[in-house]
Amino acid sequence: MAGCVSQAAPSEPWLQNVSIVGVKQIDRIVEVVGETLKGNKVRLLTRNRPDALLSLPKMRKNELIEVLSISTGCLNNCTYCKTKMARGDLVSYPLADLVEQARAAFHEEGVKELWLTSEDLGAWGRDIGLVLPDLLKELVKVIPDGSMMRLGMTNPPYILDHLEEIAEILNHPKVYAFLHIPVQSASDAVLTDMKREYSRRHFEQIADYMIEHVPNIYIATDMILAFPTETLEDFEESMDLVRKYKFPSLFINQYYPRSGTPAARLKKIDTVEARKRTAAMSELFRSYTRFTEDRIGEVHNVLVTEIAADKLHGVGHNKSYEQILVPLEYCKMGEWIEVRVTSVTKFSMISKPTSQPEDDDSLVPWNENPWYMVIYPLLFLILLLSTIYSVDRFISPGFVEEWLPFLADTETDPNNDWYMNALERDDVVFYE
Ligand code: SF4
Predict the structure, then answer these.
(1) Residue limits of the Radical SAM core domain (predicted)?
(2) How far, in Å, from the CA of 173 to the mean position of ligand 1?
């Protein structure tokens, strides 16, 4: 096991018989796997050692995307959080190492997107006398033409100090206009109980500034519902915030107590009530969309970096990090393509290249093409009838008569009354 939970609570009963790789021991994974395969139980949990080198060899899930962790730990002490117990205080990777890692990924390994991650992106540098914009300004210098950078999750408190510089970075042509700011609750009382160190007003200040200064910015957020002290009024405030901003991505988490955290000692909200709140917010989220019908016909440049789950489209993103699906036959992974939106869904827009004629039906997914809705059933019917005919003619004579009498050709069936009567009357002449 690896990760925050096993690091923070290794004595949990379900972790007793497994090897554990602590969050500061990831560079020793080969050793741990080797020993475990020999039947030994290994538990490397000490945090009293430096973080693993950024340059450790890695296998990318998507070879076009470099996921770069810029720091470990954070400066907060949220009362529900287990991660803090595992990862501890903020440790920022040095600026020069991060820039070199990004440079090598882009220029030597051919990645097309750089995703910055950490527990709290906004806090980067505070432990080494720097701030996030210092890093971002250096990183954009090593992004080659045709590649992009995406910022990761950032809590409100620290980016509040740098709104102007962050907006400037998000407007850079090689940076997605995308921000993930986890608000968790819109009630100041709940935020205080969570020890989040900001208020609803702070969150709104950031969101409003970015909406005003970064055209078409895409703001994602997270909500924790049914935190132990959340009243119905508090919950309504969170619903109200979602109604106000209509976040295109909203991660809804029903509160779950993590053992050893301060919040876990509080009395839980009734499970049925908690589920009701989760369902209500999920329904609200489903009720609106960023991708409205009036966007059909829009033209976008998208960078395609992966294949969609339907295996029929490539997944591309425009400057605002909106997901735009492009028919796979026109995609070249890692390249930009100009497309026109042909239809919309809750989470994405479907498109076709502007280089293709607008009425080219071959670009419409088969299950949305009205012609295929007629042709496929017809082909199926023809196939079914030919199979029945073959069975009746060559494999099991009399099959149709016995099992599908409504299909039997009574005019030529030698067993029908007319035929038998004709034979008896000698009306039938056989020719040799
Ligand atoms: S939830 Fe709070 S304490 Fe936990 S990692 Fe995030 S910022 Fe840190």
Answers:
(1) 60-295
(2) 31
